[in-house]
Amino acid sequence: MTCIVNSSIKCWSKNIYMYDFMWKFYSELEYADGGKIWTVVSCNRPVNRVFNKWSCNAILEIKAMNAEDRNKVYLNRTYYNTFSSSESDKVIKCVGIKTLLAEHDESFEKSNICVEFKIQVLDTDGIIPEIIYDYKQSIYGNGNDDTFLEIDGQLFSVKKNFLSMYGTIFQKMFNSHFKVSAMDLMYKVNENNYLFSEGIRYIYKYRSYLIHRRNVERLLALGKMCGSLHLIADCENFLINTKRCGFCRKMNLAEKYELQNLYLHCIHRMDSFNSNDLLKLLREIDYFYLSDGIKDRILDGIEDSTLKELQIT
What we know:
This protein is of the alpha+beta class. 37% of the residues lie in helices and 26% in strands. The chain has helices spanning 97-102, 135-138, 160-164, 168-175, 179-191, 193-203, 216-226, 229-241, 247-256, 260-271, 275-281, 292-300, 304-310; strands spanning 2-5, 11-12, 16-18, 21-30, 36-44, 55-66, 73-84, 89-95, 113-125, 147-151, 154-158. Helix 9 (247-256) runs antiparallel to helix 10. The longest helix has 13 residues, at 179-191.
């Protein structure tokens, strides 16, 4: 990432997406302290990702050069920094720029300086460490892809290591040396073409393709079939935060797919319900699919007189 600054021009770089992070940096010159370059590096998660806690360790290299002749390098410094959900900015102050310019017989007030910033990501936590891109674009050749999947007659250009991080079924599919195992896995894919293709669309982040109340159970089913903890976690976080799914539907999915965080969230909510709130749950379609233990807990919270009126014992 580069930008041009001088004594009167400040610069924001464009957004750069790398390792599923959105990077941006700001730079300006100041006269104080013998002249200094201020640089602020920002690292943020794209808004359509559901993980709230993340961190990223990176090596940052800043270089200041003459804008017309970039062989004239005024400074070149390297920093190690940890970006996180609680601290996403790094402020760097490089002082003494006037002296460095004077060594090249150049004026601080008149010089245009090219500030170049390089980022090397060392490791990440709370994300999948790969660039997320549109699967529709990847089919025309992304440069990183190394195999194809054919689903319903459509070829998907994919990267084996990337998909392998999304579940054991992909790991076995791409790494198994046993024909019987491979045939069994392909049978599962062929029998679930719609389910599998929908999962590929989500995994490859076709940008407008997000989890919603109509597809969340299908994606949970795919996550369970593929052994994909990432996909299941995305769905669980969606269900915890959305207001567009009824309580009984959330509890039903929590029990069916063993979503512990969602289950505890529902139990906590249910403990705050009054008798009328619990009575409304009896009218939800998904109430009938709940386990007997949860049904008993709901009925125990409703006043006996109300249950008698409804002839429920």
